[in-house]
Amino acid sequence: MTIGSDIEAMLDRAIADVFHGEFVTRDDVSDDPTWIRGVEVISRTREDRIVIIRAGRAWIGGFIPQLGIGAQMVDEDDDIAYKEEESRKLCRALHSYLEGGGRVTQRRRLFGRGSTSELAIEVDGFEWRFGHRSCVWAHPV
Q1: Beta bridge pairs of residue 85
Q2: Residue 141: exposure state from Cβ atoms within 10 A (0-12, 13-18, ≥19)
């Protein structure tokens, strides 16, 4: 197996383990050469809630298109077991969001007009903050 197929299998296992087929999933594709696998997950009960989970060789990320926010972890180690556990944590946080969890706040932008959104979610003793240009990845509460 190659690292690419390992990452694909890892992400597929994490998604199957956390979402249990309770949500609609479909492949998400990109021309980005660093992107190995992407999956879009849609709530069956709240169609306005969609998340995209992506993985590359050196990163794992989650994106919430409706809010334009996400979180990403960069790790250049090839430890698939560690990446799989981190993927499961991310999937659990995004699962919570899809079920209506989390708290969205708006804050004024430092430069320019308007505001930016941030989503805070607590899951399994970790706090997540999904943002536009910043994030907090599974910080212990």
Answers
A1: none
A2: exposed
CATH fold label, 3-101:
Pantoate--beta-alanine Ligase; Chain: A,domain 2 (3.30.1300)
Residue 138: Cβ-neighbour burial (10 angstroms; 0-12, 13-18, 19+): middle
Instruction: For CA atoms 80, 85, 89, 91, give the dihedral sign.
Output: positive
Structure tokens at 106: 């708006």
The model's pTM: 0.89
Sheet containing 115-123: give its strands across: 103-108, 115-123, 126-130, 135-140
Q: Which residue has the higher pLDDT, 43 or 107?
A: 43
AA identity, residue 91: C
